Amino acid sequence: MKIFWAALLAVVVGSILSGLFWLITLVGIAGSAGTSATSVMPNSILKIDFADNITDSPATNPFAGINFQTMQSTRTLSLLSVLRAIDAAATDERIKGIYLNFNYQGTISMASLEELREAIVRFKQSGKFVVAYNDTYPQAAYYFASVADKIYLQPQGGVELTGVSSTLIFFKGAFDKLGISAEAFRPTVCKYKSAVEPYILTKMSEPNRRQNQQMCDQMWDVMLTAIAESRGIEKQTLNTIADELSAMLAEDALNLHLVDGLIYADQMDDVWAELGVEKGILGNYEMVSLGDYCSVVGADMKNLSAPKVGIIYAEGQIVDGDLDNDGQTIYGTSLAQTIAEARNDESIKAVVLRVNSPGGSALASDVIWREVELLKAQKPVIVSMGSYAASGGYYISAPADAIVADRLTLTGSIGVFGMMIEGGDMLRNKLGITTDGVKTNSSADFGANVLGLQLRKPNAVERKALIRSVDKVYETFTQKVATGRNLPLERVLEIAEGRVWCGTEAVQIGLADTNGGLHAAIALAADKAGIADDFRVEEVLGEMSPFMALMQSLGAQVRGVLLDSRTLELQREAEQLQQAMMLEGVQAYCPERVEF
Fold first, then answer.
1. pLDDT tens by residue, 301-355
2. What's the whole-model pTM score?
3. Which single residue of 85, 186, 467, 588 could bond 417 by disulfide (Cβ 3.0 to 4.6 Å)?
4. What is the Cα–Cα distance from 149 to 589, expressed in whole angstroms?
5. Tell me: the pLDDT tens digits for 210-260?
6. Residue pair 551/321 in contact by the 8 Å Cβ criterion
7. In the Cβ-directed half-sphere of 46, how many Cα atoms lie within 13 Å?
8. Do domains 41-162+212-297 and 308-414+497-589 have the same CATH topology?
9. What are the structural domain ranges in the chain?
């Protein structure tokens, strides 16, 4: 027994020490991913290659970029830090110009890409060059690269201009075969609220088809307009190129004036020489990556005593609860607490609420809405909309003093729904699972489920209660939009109905005040606070505990192990279905996705 207990103690102590060792190691890796000893040499070229993940909010999870299979890390850059770096490069004498050369290892949303493109436009006002080169240009990459003074392409490459599409997956047929039935509860007028359609229909409803078509048309027009202005090509010509796929070969892309030259990567040295860039001491042209330059520029350190514009991030699906916001999920109570902290911080004179959310829980959205209202009563609040600020994402935006939306933002979707997915027959007939029980009242088992499937359909009383609930939330939602946007309720009801709008349309119909990005929102907030001549920007963030961050990252890695792109797509669809089966309460959620 002495040997046994000694061995057991050794195992326990050894496990604890081993766990501490790996925790310290991972913290070290995570820490090193966010620091850099980079120094910017004279005659440097700022290289934007999208090797890093660019997200709206900074990564509060120190393990977010670590691949636990390879023990390698991918840096995550916040959009603010990237915009700040590009603006700094314009006046940095060491930076001679910008080189757009993409390797596509990182991730970035289309709305963020739009904001980076606008930052490059500002950079060009300095008189410095912007040059793009790539082996091939996918559509989104070409949209971004078109801002360059010159675009070069590998002689065997091509430019992919195909247009914009939106494709939905419908589960109704599978539900029928499995013996599962879904019942949706939404206000009659919310004919555009399409989140429930994949579970009750086999194809788009006509209203949903119209809104998706208009959404794609508007977003494609934004891209075409930008490319046409930069390259001096008529939009109709660009549409013909997309219809005929006539730029897939490099020679055709050159003849169509989409690119300025066909060269190999090593020949870019001749381009730098022509632009007057001098070689470094080792005989090479000095390149500094965007990520490294961000670390050199650092945070806004000018006049530390200056009044602040605070930035609060609302990124992800909105859910009930009080947990650490991780950049993928917005916990209503947690975000409300963060907003309250900014309200009580006297050094913060104005707040920019950066919203990148398709919505979610109506209750959690209302909790956040209340804090935005309280904040607005004390200091200016400007909402900056990212890729999505729809449904619940618009709910929390409505009280702001002003709303600034990217042109590629999807917003609106002012509507609500509830849904129940009943699978009693499937559980019994397909899996052999049966249930039995007792109850004190007719609805005591209302909502009882197994594996996320309701055990029975709602009765007449329950159905009436659900309908009353969604009608009440929709009434509250539209009234708060009318008050927040200073619009007649009748006008809000006309543009609501669950309909999704692009950022350009949102300004036209009064759901937003102007088109622009985070940079414009910060300037507007400072102006409204009367501090435009001297202010600092500070991000108001909630930190994750190291243990929770580690567990969250490990979970993400386990889900992603050995999955190819198609499997990952199926996984995302499965997660969408799982979320639908687990929905509780009334939802203000917008599921629309657009493929570029």
1. 567 789 999 999 999 999 998 876 666 789 999 999 999 999 999 999 999 999 9
2. 0.84
3. 186
4. 41
5. 999 999 999 999 999 999 999 999 999 999 999 999 999 999 999 999 999
6. no
7. 28
8. yes
9. 41-162+212-297, 308-414+497-589
CA distance 489 to 35: 51
What tokens does 386 get? 């990212």
Instruction: Give yes or no for a contact between 422 and 410, defined as CB atoms under 8 angstroms apart.
Output: no
CATH of domain 41-162+212-297: 3.90.226.10
C-alpha to C-alpha distances, 438 to 420, 423, 443, 458, nearest whole angstrom: 22, 20, 11, 17
- Matching residue, tokens 């409300």: 336
CA distances from 433 to 121, 318, 320, 358, 582 (A): 62, 33, 31, 35, 19
d(CA 345, CA 327): 23
CA 567 from chain centre, in angstroms, equals 21
Residues with active-site annotation: 193, 391
Q: In CATH, which of 3.90.226.10, 1.20.58.220, 3.30.1490.190, 3.90.550.10 is domain 308-414+497-589?
A: 3.90.226.10
- Diameter of the chain measured on Cα atoms: 86
CA angle at 124 for the pair 294 and 302, rounded to the nearest 5° = 40
Question: At CA 146, angle to CA 140 and CA 150, rounded to 5?
Answer: 140
Rg of the chain over Cα atoms, rounded to whole angstroms, equals: 26
Q: How many CA atoms lie within 13 A of 423 on its CB side?
A: 21
Q: How far apart are alpha carbons 356 and 496 in whole angstroms?
A: 19
